[in-house]
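Revision sheet: structure tokens.
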Amino acid sequence: MTVLETPQTRDGQSVAAIHDGLRTAILRGELNPGSSVSQASLIRTFGAGRTPLREALRLLQREGLVLAAPNQQLRIAPLTAQDFEELSIARLALEAVAIRITVPTLTSADIAALEGFMAQMDHYQRADDQPGLRGPHRAFHHRLIATAGPRVSAEIGELADHAERYRVRFSAAGRWEDRRAEHRAILDAAKVGDAEQAATHLAEHYVRTVALVFAGLDPDHDLGRLHVTLRAVAPGAIGVLRSDWADG
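Predicted:
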């Protein structure tokens, strides 16, 4: 069942619980991007009181997942080419730096944990358990940027969540064999302490996802700004971009 089909909230429940339930529903696409929804319908669905619901919605508005609308209506943030490109630019810029900071600090225990996350991803993929796959996938990427600090890690995590809305909607996971090879390349570079190569492989991994999303979202979108970003933070990954996306 979906989050919306099994509401767990009751009147008086904490703002955090309502916020988490709504946020999950938005990120998983259970509340359609661009759709309008009334506070009254959310109260019925989540069994929430007006005051905690309004506070939860305020937090989601601050994050950019919910937009205010007249007459007690709210609008779920739409999926747009410009928004996804900006998410990709910010994520690439931050993670390319964060992985360079983190790789030289990785211990034997860190590498073992990363290998474990790879094995878990394989397991969930074989079981066709995409919700299960998200946990080790997220943990894998987090371990590779953690030394950059909690503020940077939190910002990267939020960007990853927002990008997931696009990946899920446009079925941009790609073939697991390809994705596994991309993760293996990142990890192999990290194992030998090659931060530059790890950053390049990470950027290539994300750019391939960007290509899959834009194939469904807006195939003709000009990704010149993404090209500039890659040239600055991971020039070795520029070749992954389609030639007609580059700005020369």
